[in-house]
Design goal:
The structure is a homodimer of 359-residue chains. With 359 residues, chain A is α+β, with helices and mostly antiparallel strands. Chain A has three domains: 85 residues, 3-Layer(aba) Sandwich (Rossmann fold), CATH 3.40.50.20; 61 residues, Dna Ligase, domain 1 (2-Layer Sandwich), CATH 3.30.1490; 171 residues, 2-Layer Sandwich (D-amino Acid Aminotransferase, Chain A, domain 1), CATH 3.30.470.20. Chain A is 28% helix and 29% strand. In chain A, the strands form three sheets. In chain A, strands 9, 10, 11, 12, 13, 14, 15, 16 and 17 form a nine-stranded antiparallel beta sheet that branches. In chain A, β11 and β12 form a beta hairpin. The longest helix of chain A is centred in the middle third of the chain and has 15 residues. The first copy, chain A, is globular.
Amino acid sequence: MILSPGATVGILGAGQLGRMLAMAALKIGLRCHVYAPETEAPAHDAAHARTIAPYEDRAALRRFVETCDLVTFEFENVPTECLEFLQTLKPVRPSPRALALTQDRLTEKTFLRGLGLETAPFADVADAGALMRAVREIGRPSILKTRRFGYDGKGQTMLREGSDLGAVHRALGAGPMILEGFVAFEREVSVIAARSLEGAVVAYDLCENEHERHILARTRVPAHVAPELLPRAREIAEKIIVGLDYVGVIGVEMFCARDAAGAERLIVNEIAPRVHNSGHWTIEGAETSQFEQHMRAIAGWPLGATTRRGLIEMRNLIGEEAEDWRDILAEPDMSLHLYGKLQARPGRKMGHVTRVLRP
Amino acid sequence: MILSPGATVGILGAGQLGRMLAMAALKIGLRCHVYAPETEAPAHDAAHARTIAPYEDRAALRRFVETCDLVTFEFENVPTECLEFLQTLKPVRPSPRALALTQDRLTEKTFLRGLGLETAPFADVADAGALMRAVREIGRPSILKTRRFGYDGKGQTMLREGSDLGAVHRALGAGPMILEGFVAFEREVSVIAARSLEGAVVAYDLCENEHERHILARTRVPAHVAPELLPRAREIAEKIIVGLDYVGVIGVEMFCARDAAGAERLIVNEIAPRVHNSGHWTIEGAETSQFEQHMRAIAGWPLGATTRRGLIEMRNLIGEEAEDWRDILAEPDMSLHLYGKLQARPGRKMGHVTRVLRP
């Protein structure tokens, strides 16, 4: 099903990703209906229509989907049941199957291995008893993570020599987990890629990411890696997006590490089944933004060029950093984005700033 | 009064200019409340809140302005009384005075002359009797225009040898008019400029405009004029924006003509007290878009850089031309904008396309 201009796209989730998706939709003549449980949230400001209801409310979902021509999501922790229900009524892109696979760190890593891609060593930790065996297999340092609902460093703990395994397991909620070997990486990088309804794949240039307290702080493009890694990173993203039979924009996070011989190699860390924070620079820095790209893909429209326009630096404004908005506006080469969040809390993404240095 | 992020800007008028203003507001964390008589209109899609009511409805205006921190307009034919009423309750930027002056072709031209700027020769046509005297003074070909409510070629007629003056006068409504001498111009150009609350002035590079049936068809930047005209055009725009004590973005339309000695000179045609169609290229083609620039100016924020990013071509999509949207999307260097208008009528601006050729 291909959309016409004027069609309505339903977006599940109302954060800044939804806000920027809705803004991109406006540019190309599409309307958005945003569905989320939160009454005050960034995407509501940019939406043509809003539904505020839990993801489990079947009646609200039904009323919502009746106004939409198709549905997408900006938030990877939307319950799969919600998307599966919506899919019985209207197309959902990307598919609930792709989302479900990436929502669970164990199925995600198993899928990546199945594609022949390198990941950190990992082991299933079904219960406390399995944790001991997993630690013997993977060693320490290693990272114990809940299988589901993790983001920005939430739902994970580093296991070191002497960590109290039982206590850590309980602190993470004693549910299904995965133990991952620690990767001594040199850099974190990501690829933002898109696949059209017809199967065409495009990718943006490799991003280099710096995190602070598990939250993305800065992205630079291009990444400072060995040149042979650039086509390799693209290849990995393409394998994943095709393997998932995915329609839309995806973010693939990778580690860049050195092997024993000193050569750089790429280890896939995780898949974000949505537009991605490390792709925000594409608004000013690429021919087509990742947000417009996602809308084009799910609408069944041709994908846009991903050509980069210069040397990129994108910085997130976290918590109180957004108070510098006036100084940032006064810098001639900085583009300020604020997400309309009225309260700055520590660790909260309030906006971002992009600088494109023209070659 | 200076706005903080999260503040609400009221916009009078709900066309594509309002839509793109509201999108720019979203980018920098401002909200928009759109007020217009039309139920279906481009800016409503991008607004946080909408009021649909006539510009004369005092009760609706009062409810609207209570939700706003300040008010601006995207439509130059808002009744001055409406703005003057709103101004008693909240700041209106640009000022109702600037709007009133430019709404009337006679006061506008008189103002321009007062600044020492060249315009077409003109004469006041208060009534049918004055028309004969005006034609004797200005000669033919000349253009008879209503003093108010003209745009896109509406409210004007060319007077040639043999035109029936009485019939033309009646056809234009027999109200107050102005007769303007015909300028044999080589090109039409425009300057988009902005002035901040503190009085700083910036201008974008000179645009060259091609009209078809009185509607802007194409804009190219930079304009192909003698190099000495570029600072002159900027100077003219600066005189006007300062002379109006203006806050916000203004469009100044000029003719480029040759004098008897063959030298090029600039003749001011008209002032648009708002963002301008010939400035749409600034979204992709300049460091700061004219829409964000307007929002920054009226918010009391620092203005942004106007640096151009390449050779620009902007094309309006008029009426059925918007049906080519899919072919345009498939062109890698074209950026498509659609205004969400559901019905294409002849002469209706449905969207635009920008191409930035990188140097």
